[in-house]
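Exercise 7. Predict the structure of DUF2071 domain-containing protein from Bacillus badius.
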Amino acid sequence: MHRAFLHLQHRPIPLPSSSWLMTQVWSNVLFMHWPIQPEALKGVFPPSLQIDLYDHTAWVGLVPFQVSNMRFHGLPSIPLFRSFLQLNVRTYVTHQGIPGVYFFSLDVNHLPSVVGARLFYLLPFRQSKMAATLNDSCRFQSSYSFGQEEEELDVCYTPLSSPYSADKGTFDYWATERYCIFTSRGNKLYRGDIHHTRWSLQKADATFFRNTMAPFLPANHWNEQPIVHFSKEKKAFFWPLQKI
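Solution. The predicted structure, encoded as tokens:
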């Protein structure tokens, strides 16, 4: 048993009774969060979900990281899925009191992951051009284009503080300690459970060279400086989607 399953007290809901389906390791994770008026998000995710607010404000996050050591339960790691980059655009929602994450887009530089995740997890994965320099000072670049649509992120980031675990009730805890995702197909809503130990966070600094992600948001959304956190590594476990 992985040590993650010895730490369950931080979960807002119990683990599913079934076995986990897949595991992967996330490295050099950057959390960047911007406040946004809740009205700006209406109509861009399923109406059966409720916007989750912190300090009476909705939040949109950009989260770039590296994925590695992906494997399915009972099987060895898959060479084809050994390592790739990912960039998530997300917000925070609840359903029947359960907090979770809703993704507007999930960009990767790995076509098999796009196909598999769209098929089995009904998530809006997209193939993008990506590059990363991942060391003490990281740089992450992503470019997605489809027809006339183009979204880019070019950011350099550096951890500033010693690692810490966020306290319940703080924004740091609220924005990172999320253990399920919500997605939909047609008028059907699905939930996918996730498990990992609590995040070890560091305060961080980010310098943006370009950011045109999520063009459906207000044009000035990215203008102010975000709240930025860094985490070196996390092993996560995923369960199959369940219709709710």
